[in-house]
Specification:
The protein is built from 22 helices and 21 strands. The protein has a 6-stranded mixed sheet with strand order 7-8-9-3-10-11, sandwiched between helices. Strands 17-18-19-14-20-21 form a 6-stranded mixed sheet, with helices on both faces. A hairpin with a 5-residue loop joins strand 1 (4-16) and strand 2. By secondary structure, it is α/β, with parallel strands linked by helices. Helices cover 41% and strands 24% of the residues. It is globular, with a radius of gyration of 26 Å.
């Protein structure tokens, strides 16, 4: 019989505010994690999941946080009351953590190898030569392609999914007793998600490891967890084994979460939509090796082309590192590229500086990692209004009212506008990033994984918001996502990318139900289709069979006619 490894007992967490005010964010929660057990903590963004996980290792700023009630016991010993010296021995060694935002967690000044070696050197006393083979082994296990070539890369040279995988490798290098995984699969496509789930299962068995798995993705929770704790507004409203939670949920909120999934259809297109964006023969090269008189280059986007109409949403899907985000950065003219980029019939591929400025307000972007794209020194009002101050001449009062209006539209309380980004959850930060982009009322909005850090209920709110804004302002979206459910709900056209190339593109229905490329078929095979689409697929299959039967009948009739004609010709 396994013993309890971690026990959270009657825990409450509060933050100190202005004028000695106290705001309680977690109230009297209880849960246990046994040896070799996985507990999933699920709930909406802002429900207190990440705050709870950070408290286990006391990673919240001690000047701002207080614990009014309760305790956290690890192997029977208190973590809340342990001295800092003892905590340092536990952090990263016995308890490891995969953080929600890898770009913030990884050191931008150090290479991948240096950061992973530091973990092995500190916790396992390895020397560099011995550590390198271990690093390569774990990078390969978490799905990094060509790991040898990635050792010298810096975090900004990796895609969002690759950074997340490096974080996972870093966390498991120490063979911890407990792994806290805070949304470890949010930046990963469905095929890599399946690999990571399998990897975590194998490591759990191999290392006798326990897990606290924090996620809003219930499909993954269903595959990985033993027990589930459902959090709402800082309280655990339901706590039971996985089977009970998924088959017989008791609480209304749990039922709402289980029933929430991206739904609906893309907004109807205008009768005669004009072409807003035309991309032809787009290429992006990076220098992989510098030499004295020459340098070695590699194409990471190769001959990409597509068209986006006014009021249309084009989705780009593909594995992490396939070139989706790089394509978006090239269109935004944030990185060098070759090829033609025409916006509203204007060639912008050769523009820079002041000549490009008039197009900046017409093309806006929501980046993949909201925390690293928000200035930590600014409050929310300053962040959202920054574009207005650059592109439009408004009074201070008009600017403030515009911020209040857009915050309300994206589901944020306007009185939160004086807070800094670090005081918000991952999902709330994503909404701040969306508000900053929408406040300029652009014609084209490039959305790079805008819903990846959001739970399904909040995802649906954001999808509905984007659709209503699209209808109201005839906005066009370039929508990059690994979430095929969101792509199906939002997009008119779909572009599938692999290794920097477009391998298939076409109308949504064709890509989802009649894919031609084997990679597209593989990608779709990992997608857990909602019931409404499974039945639709069956209907399509039935209609295909009917069409096949009709074709056979037609052919039989044609054969009979041909045979009859032949007899008549013989008689003649």
């Amino acid at each position: 019989m396994s013993s309890t490894l971690l026990s959270v007992q009657d825990l409450s967490i509060a933050f100190k505010g202005y004028a000695q005010s106290i705001s309680q964010v977690v109230s009297n929660i209880n849960f246990d994690i046994d040896e070799q057990e996985t507990l999933a903590l699920v709930g909406e963004s802002g429900s207190g999941k990440s705050i709870t996980s950070l408290s286990i290792l006391r990673l919240l700023r001690k000047e701002q946080v207080i614990y009014p009630t309760g305790d956290i016991l690890f192997e029977g010993k208190s973590l809340l009351h342990a001295p800092e010296k003892q905590l340092r021995k536990i952090r990263g060694n016995q308890i490891s953590m995969i953080f929600q935002e890898p770009m913030v967690s990884l050191n931008p000044l150090h290479t991948v190898e240096k950061q992973l070696y530091e973990v092995l050197s500190l916790h396992r006393g390895m020397r560099r030569n011995e550590a390198r083979s271990e690093i390569l082994q774990y990078l390969d296990r978490v799905g990094i392609k060509e790991p040898k070539n990635r050792l010298s890369a810096y975090p900004h040279q990796l895609s969002g999914g690759e950074r997340q995988r490096v974080m996972i490798a870093m966390a498991i290098l120490t063979h911890p007793k407990l792994l806290i995984a805070d949304e470890p699969t949010t930046a990963l496509d469905v095929s890599v998600q399946a690999q990571i789930i399998q990897l975590l299962k194998e490591l759990k068995t191999e290392l006798n490891m326990s897990m606290l798995f924090i996620s809003h993705n219930l499909a993954i929770v269903k595959k990985l967890a033993d027990k589930v704790a459902v959090m709402q507004q800082g309280k655990i409203v339901e706590y039971n084994n996985k089977q009970r939670i998924f088959l017989r949920p008791q609480h209304n909120y749990t039922q709402t979460l289980l029933n929430a999934e991206p739904s609906g259809e893309p907004m109807p297109l205008p009768e005669i939509p004009g072409i807003l964006l035309n991309v032809n023969r787009l290429n992006v090269e990076v220098i992989t090796q510098k030499r004295l008189f020459s340098s070695k280059k590699k194409k990471i986007v190769d001959n990409v082309g597509f068209t986006l109409h006014q009021g249309e949403t084009v989705g780009i899907v593909g594995e992490s590192g396939s070139g989706k985000s790089t394509t978006a950065l090239a269109i935004l003219r944030l990185i060098k590229s070759q090829g033609d980029i025409l916006f509203d019939s204007h060639p912008i591929h050769n523009l820079s500086g002041k000549k490009l400025l008039p197009f900046r307000s017409r093309i806006q972007v929501v980046f993949q990692d909201p925390f690293s794209s928000l200035n930590p020194r600014f409050n929310v009002e300053q962040i959202i209004s920054e574009g207005l101050l650059t592109h439009k001449k408004l009074s201070k009062k008009e600017c403030e009212q515009a911020v209040i209006d857009i915050m309300s539209e994206v589901g944020l309380e306007p009185n939160m506008r004086f807070r800094n980004p670090m005081e918000f959850s991952g999902g709330q930060r994503q909404r701040i990033a969306i508000a900053r982009a929408l406040i300029l009322q652009p014609e084209l909005l490039i959305l790079d994984e805008p819903t990846s850090s959001l739970d399904h209920t909040t995802q649906q709110q954001i999808i509905n918001l984007l659709k209503s804004l699209q209808e109201k302002y005839q906005l066009s979206y370039l929508f990059i996502s690994h979430d095929l459910g969101v792509i199906y709900s939002m997009c008119h056209q779909v572009v599938v990318m692999q290794d920097g190339q477009v391998i298939e593109q076409g109308a949504r229905e064709k890509i989802f139900f009649e894919p031609e490329n084997e990679y597209t078929k593989t990608l779709l095979s990992f997608w857990d289709k909602p019931a409404r689409l499974k039945s639709k697929n069956k209907t399509l299959l039935y209609s295909e069979k009917m069409n096949e039967q009709e074709e056979k009948d037609d052919q039989k009739f044609k054969n009979k006619v041909d045979w009859g004609d032949a007899l008549l010709m013989r008689k003649d």
